[in-house]
Design goal:
two-stranded antiparallel sheet, 10 helices, 9 strands, about 35% helix, binds iron/sulfur cluster
């Protein structure tokens, strides 16, 4: 029995010899696509929480968020080591001293073995990358760049506020620093067809990065996407369509890339549609079943063989 894609848990276990879980941190930062630097509207699918937990606004420090996360993830998964995942908004978008204080605080918590920093490709510069490179000498450091699509027209229509070249430039500036690079991609963006998403997969495959997160575009309350959806100007993907698109994507990217996520995790109270997106385990099971049905795996269309990863 072989793995058909290179999953995150196996990767972490190979590095640390135990279950490792990411703990989501809300560091109270902002985003240039919301504070007026690039735009005040944000991406059309983003609500005021910026994909965040809102933990900081509930008064929890970074240390408290990590301690609570550790307890919960030990109970649920018996996880013994943890990555501090700075997720909400853009987590390199602050003065360098502020960032250093935040990252230092996270790394001072017992059993935290590294950082995952979610950000936009237009929010990194040499000082930030130098700082992360320093941490990477001692800790596991991932930076997660939101690309979403490799089609510039789509990035304009979702009000992303940067183009594909911006992503390429950020990746080039980050390579060869011991910092691992992950890209976020969304499937089902407005007006994208299957060949657009395959093109994004090919762009990711050629980019030299180390990992990937695939998300389903779902509609949450209070977004411009909700307005489009209610006006009948946006149609959500059906579950089977999404499963097919994920398999298309996996077949086109190299087997060494770590797959950090294969679907989104909507908050049930915020979700407008599609309702099937709440059933993550069923979607993952269907993706696996489709790969088996296609007799396919990550990297197949690049000529890679099944069998290099034991299940
Ligand atoms: S870059 Fe992220 S936080 Fe900023 S508007 Fe877009 S989705 Fe929201």
């Amino acid at each position: 029995m072989y793995k058909r894609y290179n999953d995150l848990n196996t990767y972490f276990r190979s590095l640390f010899g135990c279950r490792v879980q990411k703990i989501t941190i809300d560091a109270g930062l902002s985003c240039p696509n919301r504070d007026g630097t690039v735009s005040t509207d944000g991406c059309i699918y983003c609500n005021a929480r910026g994909s965040g937990t809102g933990a900081l606004s509930r008064g929890l420090s970074i240390t408290e968020q990590l301690v609570q996360g550790k307890q919960a993830l030990f109970r649920r998964y018996k996880a013994r080591k943890f990555m501090a995942y700075f997720q909400s908004f853009s987590n390199t978008y602050a003065p360098i001293d502020t960032l250093k204080r935040l990252y230092d605080e996270a790394l001072s918590v017992e059993d935290v073995v590294g950082l995952s920093i979610g950000t936009r490709p237009d929010c990194v510069d040499e000082p930030v990358l130098d700082l992360l490179q320093d941490y990477a000498q001692k800790y596991l450091v991932w930076i997660e760049y939101g690309l979403q699509s490799a089609r510039d027209a789509t990035l304009v229509s979702i009000n992303r506020g940067h183009d594909v070249q911006c992503f390429r430039d950020a990746v080039q500036a980050t390579l060869n620093r011991k910092i691992k690079i992950c890209a976020h991609v969304i499937l089902g963006l407005p007006d994208e067809c299957r060949s657009d998403m395959r093109h994004t997969a090919q762009t990711i495959a050629a980019s030299g990065i180390d990992g990937l997160k695939l998300h389903l575009l779902y509609v949450i309350k209070g977004t411009r996407l909700e307005t489009l959806y209610r006006q009948g100007r946006y149609r959500c993907l059906e579950q089977q369509e999404y499963v097919d698109l994920v398999c298309d994507f996996l077949e086109r990217i190299p087997g060494h890339m770590i797959i950090q996520r294969l679907t989104g995790d909507p908050h049930p109270a915020e979700l407008v549609a599609p309702q099937w997106s709440l059933n993550k385990s069923e979607t993952l099971a269907q993706i696996h079943a489709m790969l088996v049905k296609r007799d396919s795996w990550q990297g197949k269309l690049l000529g890679e063989k099944l069998g290099c990863r034991e299940a």
